[in-house]
Amino acid sequence: EIVMTQSPATLSVSPGERATLSCRASQSVSSNLAWYQQKPGQAPRLLIYRASVRATGIPARFSGSGSGTEFTLIISSLQSEDFAVYYCQQYNDWPPWTFGQGTKVEIK
Amino acid sequence: QVQLVESGGGAVQPGLSLRLSCAASGFTFNRYGMHWVRQAPGKGLECVAVIPYDGNNKYYADSVKGRFTISRDNSKNTLYLQMDSLRPEDTAVYYCAKDGVAGLRTAAGFSDYWGQGTLVTVSS
Q1: What mean pLDDT comes out for the span A3-27?
Q2: In chain A, at which end, N or C, are there fewer CB atoms within 10 A of the end residue's CB?
Q3: Closest Cα in chain A, distance from residue B113 (Å)
Q4: Nearest CA to CA, how far is A48 from chain B (Å)?
Q5: pLDDT digits (tens, 9 = 90+) for B76-98
Q6: How far apart are CA A65 and CA A38, in angstroms?
Q7: What is the separation of C-alpha A32 from the centre of its chain, rounded to a whole number of angstroms?
Q8: Which chain B residue's Cα is nearest to A89?
Q9: What number of C-beta contacts closer than 8 Å exist between A and B?
């Protein structure tokens, strides 16, 4: 099973600042990597798939990059609605598809 | 617009069964794989079962294999999860989620739409 490790566990950022989230896979997942945002009491929301493709309706301030084992999600200028938990997920291996443990982005 | 509405959750004693349902609308249900993903209280996400668009090549996480059964009725646009021999560690919010790519025999793996989830609590 591929293990996904996210860092940091918590990121404190001021509104308007840039946030950089990392995700590492225990073995190569090519570009089969997705990012999700989850707010308290809500379902996850797809942000990015295929490592860098924004999902429908996702603002351009969200960008993804990477391939192989190292991936990054950047939120270029944090808005109040962006404070949430972010999960990466690999879907290269069938099965199982695995998620990281999450990075909480909180207001500094 | 895509809608996924789960039902069937609730409180149940260990060893008993529950069946979850997910009513889908707003897309061509019989063209997409579907997933059940769960989230234990305060924890992360775990994909527990996947069914491709045609109902073949089902996948189960080791944690539920032999106890849970995923199925679909394409004539009713509905996804199911039959959960037997429930354990306290199965306590979680269960989400129904739509696969991101149409027509794949094994499903793509990422989920572009999610339901709001239904809570399953297993406790004596």
Answers
A1: 96
A2: C
A3: 7
A4: 9
A5: 999 999 999 999 999 999 999 99
A6: 20
A7: 13
A8: B110
A9: 58
Q: Write out the two tokens for B14.
A: 């260990």
State the DSSP H helix or E strand holding residue A86, giving kind and residue range, or none if neither. Answer: strand A85-90
CA distance linking residue A54 with residue B17, whole number of Å:
39
Q: Tell how strand A103-107 and strand A10-13 pair up.
A: parallel
When pLDDT is cut at 50, 70 and 90, the band that residue B75 belongs to is very high
Burial of B121 (0-12, 13-18, 19+ CB in 10 A): middle
**For chain B, what is the largest distance between any 2 Cα atoms, rounded to a whole number of angstroms?**
42
Which residue of chain A is at minimal alpha-carbon distance from B39?
Answer: A43
Q: Which single residue is written with the structure tokens 């999450």?
A: A102
A87 and chain B: CB distance < 8 Å anywhere? Answer: yes
| CB of B33 less than 8 A from some CB of A | no
pLDDT, tens only, B22-52 = 999 999 999 999 999 999 999 999 999 999 9
